[in-house]
């Protein structure tokens, strides 16, 4: 196991390369999901406001 | 004959007007009215071909005007919010350029006559940077006389003009119509155009249409 | 054709009367090159080694700087709309404006280049090829830059944005321009590079007016 | 009113996206697991570069992805300019940050690979230089997208830019290769296809599939976000104009 982690002496390059890659991909995925959720929330709030306005104007 | 049918205009992501139609025959005039943001400028730009309608038809003498941009452009003059007067060129050079780029006669006599129609002959040698807003507008209007075209599209042409200049514009429009020309202009109702069709653009906004349906 | 010449003449006379604008581009070019001896030291062999690269990079930057104004003033004062509505196709209008722009900024750069080559201790074998390469390369720079200049009309942060869009596209011209000069100095092949530069020029002459006009149309909408 | 794309609710797209998304995620998770396993356990160490060659299995697929994303952007831009399909524009816009991320990864992993091989973090190797220029192109595209207040203008301007950039990519590649042979012919990988051993090719291809699936999944998330954002903008405009 230790030998595997050492990567023949290249551990300092191989593991960061993989860590960075999958870390960045995870970050981008998380940001995209969060963006979708935030925008959806904003839309729900705005459309609720709009409905209230419309009901007011109907009266 | 200049006609539009079922025109829809979308600016940014806003529906400005929809289902708008118009028709002007030779010698006719169309006056666009409506509050700010109702799309007067957009409609004029659309008529000029600068702005593509999201849907609808536009015809010039029975032929599709949206087909060939350059062909349609050669039939019209457009006066927008900016006067396109270059500060380092003299008035004469400015007008000569705009006449020449349309392939019109560019001898000085023709251009001076055009300037004279807006009482700007005396400005001929003055560089554009010395002109006031009203003088610039007059130079811009002289440009459309220097190179004749049957369709005039004037977006608030009276802005910055004093009363005397407005009556000059009045006369120019009258002459143009007598020669079979068509004028479409937007205005805040400070110009008196005889026998003009009035088009209130706010009638074609989504809100009005909804109200009408309800 | 008559109207094309008409438009070029008008842009030229505008540029001449505003005098300083195109002068400033040349002055920028000179200053940018002069900074290098001050930065890397005055040693003749070092300077000679980097001379062609420095002159080309400075030419790229000056061309790019001057392009920001290519359509900007016409866009702001309403002239661009009227040019679009003139009987000239917009593609030809773009070409005319680029021609005038190259005459007022590209040519002065080429005139100044040999002087800078002397300052940079370039070997004299390279002079002629430097001029030929600039003659073939700078029109491509103006043409490609015109597309960028059309795209940024009406945007925020125009100038910086333009460099971001245009400089990566200038890389091929830079590579072959420098390589031609270095080839001539080192006694290697340089004709192929010049031919490729000429090819770039013809290619961009055929394609960029088209893209530039599309850029202007969307800016005017 | 059928012409009013922008106001049309893209229900069909959303339905399709909902169907595809879980599959894309599953494909990504499975192929990434298999790919990683093969990269570390079944693929042999390189006889010259030793274990450091394993970086190849992220570096090469990432640089493929950077080109792939730029191509998608250019194609989507062409579709959006010619047919004015609103989803094309949305997909081009949503692709840009993913492409930029993969391009950055290709550079970073290339640098991590280059350090033990060349002894420096950066060498002006033909592949790395081309990828660097590609990163500039991605960034330029995103900058232009963000430079306009009007979304429609931003979409049109950046679509033209993507097409111009795309035409230039092979020219830039050719120039950089030429320049590289003049100066230094060294390169870490030469992907000539036939010379690569299947035990190394398979993990490469499977990782490429994993990245593509990841791309599809994130693309759909971002497109859905863009579509909701469009609806938000329309609501805001309604508030202002009372339309």
Report what the structure shows.
The complex is a heterotetramer of chains A (about 60), B (about 210), C (about 220) and D (about 240). With about 60 residues, chain A is an all-alpha fold. Chain A has helices at about 1-5, 10-59. Chain A starts with a helix and ends with a helix. The mean pLDDT of chain A is about 85. Chain B is an alpha/beta fold and about 210 residues long. In chain B, about 35% of the residues lie in helices and about 25% in strands. Chain B has helices at about 40-50, 70-75, 90-100, 110-115, 135-145, 165-180, 205-214; strands spanning about 1-10, 15-25, 30-35, 55-60, 65, 75-80, 150-155, 180-185, 195-200. Chain B has a five-stranded parallel beta sheet with strand order 6-7-8-3-9, with helices on both faces. A four-stranded antiparallel beta sheet of chain B has the order 2-1-4-5, covered by helices on one side. In chain B, helix 6 (about 165-180) links the parallel strand 7 and strand 8 (about 180-185). In chain B, helix 3 (about 90-100) packs across helix 4 (about 110-115) and helix 4 (about 110-115) packs across helix 5. The longest helix of chain B is centred in the last third of the chain and has 16 residues, at about 165-180. The two termini of chain B are about 35 Å apart. The relative contact order of chain B is 0.20. Chain C is an all-alpha fold and about 220 residues long. The mean pLDDT of chain C is about 90. Chain D is built from six helices and no strands. Chain D is globular, with a radius of gyration of 21 Å. Chain D has helices spanning about 10-40, 55-80, 85-120, 125-145, 150-185, 200-240. Mean pLDDT of chain D is about 85; it is low at about 1-10. The longest helix of chain D has about 45 residues, at about 200-240. The interface of A and D includes residues 13, 24, 35 and 46 of A.
Question: Layout of helices and strands, plus pairs?
Answer:
The complex is a heterotetramer of chains A (59), B (214), C (221) and D (243).
Chain A: H1 2-6, H2 11-58
Chain B: E1 2-11, E2 14-24, E3 29-33, H1 40-48, E4 55-60, E5 63-64, H2 69-73, E6 76-79, H3 91-100, H4 108-117, H5 133-146, E7 151-155, H6 163-178, E8 182-186, E9 197-200, H7 206-213
Parallel strand pairs in B: 3-8, 3-9, 6-7, 7-8
Antiparallel strand pairs in B: 1-2, 1-4, 4-5
Chain D: H1 11-42, H2 56-82, H3 86-118, H4 126-146, H5 151-183, H6 198-241
């Amino acid at each position: 196991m230790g030998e595997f982690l050492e990567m023949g002496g290249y551990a300092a390059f191989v593991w960061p390369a993989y860590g960075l890659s999958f870390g960045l991909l995870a970050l981008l995925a998380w940001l995209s999901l969060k963006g979708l959720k935030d925008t959806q929330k904003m839309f729900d709030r705005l459309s609720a406001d709009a409905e209230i306005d419309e009901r007011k104007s109907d009266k | 004959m200049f006609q539009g049918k079922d025109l829809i205009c979308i600016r940014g992501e806003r529906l400005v007007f929809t289902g708008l139609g118009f028709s002007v025959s030779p010698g006719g005039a169309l006056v666009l009215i409506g509050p700010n943001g109702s799309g007067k400028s957009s409609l004029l730009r659309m008529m000029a071909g600068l702005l593509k309608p999201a849907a609808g038809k536009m015809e010039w003498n029975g032929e599709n005007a949206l087909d060939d941009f350059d062909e349609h452009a050669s039939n019209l003059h457009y006066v927008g919010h900016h006067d396109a007067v270059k500060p380092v060129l003299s008035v004469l050079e400015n007008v000569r350029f705009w006449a020449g780029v349309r392939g019109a006669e560019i001898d000085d006599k023709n251009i001076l006559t055009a300037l004279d129609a807006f009482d700007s002959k005396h400005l001929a040698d003055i560089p554009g940077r010395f002109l006031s807003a009203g003088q610039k507008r007059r130079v811009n209007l002289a440009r459309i006389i220097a190179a004749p075209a049957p369709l005039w599209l004037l977006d608030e042409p009276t802005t910055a003009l004093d009363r005397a200049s407005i009556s000059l514009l009045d006369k120019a429009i009258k002459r143009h119509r007598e020669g079979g020309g068509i004028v479409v202009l937007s205005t805040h109702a400070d110009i008196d155009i005889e026998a003009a069709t009035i088009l209130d653009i706010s009638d074609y906004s989504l809100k009005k249409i909804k109200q009408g349906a309800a | 054709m008559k109207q094309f010449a008409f438009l070029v003449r008008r842009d030229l006379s505008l540029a001449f009367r505003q005098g300083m604008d195109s002068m400033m581009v040349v002055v920028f070019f000179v200053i940018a090159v002069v900074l290098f001896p001050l930065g890397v030291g005055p040693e003749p062999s070092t300077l000679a080694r980097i001379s062609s690269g420095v002159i080309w990079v400075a030419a790229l930057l000056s061309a790019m700087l001057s392009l920001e104004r290519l359509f900007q003033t016409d866009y702001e004062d309403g002239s661009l709309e009227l040019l679009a509505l003139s009987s000239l196709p917009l593609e030809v209008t773009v070409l005319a404006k680029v021609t005038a722009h190259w005459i007022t900024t590209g040519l002065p750069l080429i005139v100044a280049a040999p002087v800078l080559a002397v300052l940079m201790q370039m070997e004299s074998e390279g002079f002629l090829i430097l001029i030929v390469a600039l003659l073939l390369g700078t029109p491509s720079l103006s043409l490609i830059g015109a597309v960028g200049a059309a795209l940024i009309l009406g945007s925020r942060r125009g100038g910086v944005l333009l460099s971001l869009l245009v400089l990566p596209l200038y890389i091929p011209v830079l590579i072959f321009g420098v390589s031609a000069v270095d080839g001539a100095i080192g006694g290697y092949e340089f004709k192929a590079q010049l031919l490729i530069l000429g090819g770039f020029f013809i290619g961009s002459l055929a394609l960029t007016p088209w893209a530039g006009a599309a850029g202007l149309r969307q800016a005017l909408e | 009113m059928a012409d009013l794309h922008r106001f049309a609710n893209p229900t069909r797209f959303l339905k399709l996206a909902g169907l595809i998304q879980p599959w894309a995620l599953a494909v990504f998770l499975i192929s990434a697991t298999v790919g990683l396993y093969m990269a570390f356990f079944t693929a042999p160490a390189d006889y010259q570069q030793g274990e450091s060659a394993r970086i190849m299995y992220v570096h090469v697929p990432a640089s493929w992805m950077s080109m792939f994303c730029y191509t998608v952007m250019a194609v989507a831009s062409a579709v959006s300019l010619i047919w004015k399909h609103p989803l094309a524009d949305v997909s081009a816009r949503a692709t840009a940050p993913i492409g930029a991320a993969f391009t950055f990864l290709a550079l970073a992993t290339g640098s991590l690979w280059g350090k033990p091989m060349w002894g420096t973090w950066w060498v002006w190797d033909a592949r790395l230089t081309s990828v660097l220029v590609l990163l500039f192109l991605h960034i330029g595209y995103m900058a232009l997208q963000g430079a306009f207040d009007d979304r429609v203008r931003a979409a049109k301007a950046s679509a033209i830019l993507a097409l111009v950039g795309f035409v230039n990519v092979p020219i830039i590649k050719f120039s950089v290769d030429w320049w590289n042979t003049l100066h230094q012919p060294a390169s870490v990988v030469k992907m000539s296809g036939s010379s690569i051993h299947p035990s190394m090719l398979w993990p490469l291809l499977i990782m490429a599939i994993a990245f593509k699936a990841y791309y599809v999944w994130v693309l759909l998330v971002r497109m859905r976000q863009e579509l909701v954002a469009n609806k938000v903008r329309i609501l805001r405009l309604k508030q202002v104009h009372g339309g």
